[in-house]
Amino acid sequence: MKNQGSHLAESMRRTIVRQSQNMLSRKRLTDHIRPGVRILFVGINPGLRSAATGHHFAGHSNRFWKLLFESTLVSEPLTYLDDWRLPEWGLGLTNIIQRTSAGINVLKPQEYLGGRKRLMATVKRYHPQVVALLGVTIYRALFPDRQTGRITLGLQGKTLADRPVFVLPNPSGRNAHYSYRTMLTAFRTMRDATSKPLQGTPKGMITAGRRDLV
User: Fold this and answer.
1) Helix (H) or strand (E) holding 160
2) What is the model's pTM?
3) Are 95 and 27 in contact (CB under 8 A)?
4) What 3-state DSSP class applies to 99?
5) Digit-coded pLDDT (tens) for 103-123
6) How many domains does the chain have?
7) Please, is 190 exposed, middle or buried when counting C-beta atoms within 10 Å of its C-beta (0-12, 13-18, 19+)?
8) What is the CATH number of the domain that holds 62?
9) Reading across the β-sheet that carries 154-160, which strands appear in turn?
10) What is the pLDDT of residues 130-159, one digit of tens each?
């Protein structure tokens, strides 16, 4: 009877978890973009904790907010609760896919295609100085001809709606392909590049010691 009760409790727990995740997957986060945006950051999609809190990059191990401050892209320490304040520094924030998930492995190719159309419309509307993609996964999704081969961090030869594209590491704690120091160097390089006009050519790229797989 004890084992039967344990199995029943575990089954109920799993059911509750699934129902909770299904509910969170339907939540959508608000983009934080204003006219005159200098850098538009593009994430992959919201995680479960971001959906639960209603704020971007809310994962406990996510390094996005620390990187923003330590690269001096913002002038004070911020947390996910301050995501709505990014336009104060000329920064914008969106995701290529709006659907929430526990990981990116469940995202489907058609979701990236739909997200690309939405992102193109957003870039055309706000015309940022640069589109900063948070992860090589996004870059490969946006440019199918780059599905294979090494992607170097930094300013790319591609443009999105005629705007320069800069590839940054995915700041998720799950991304172990880059050290924090390399991530910070990438953010600082973008900061320096956006302090002067960008030409949309692959200048000032960062040579990474390891490939960014996410």
Assistant:
1) strand 154-160
2) 0.81
3) no
4) coil
5) 888 999 899 999 999 999 999
6) 1
7) buried
8) 3.40.470.10
9) 91-95, 39-43, 130-134, 163-168, 154-160
10) 999 999 999 999 998 888 788 999 999 999
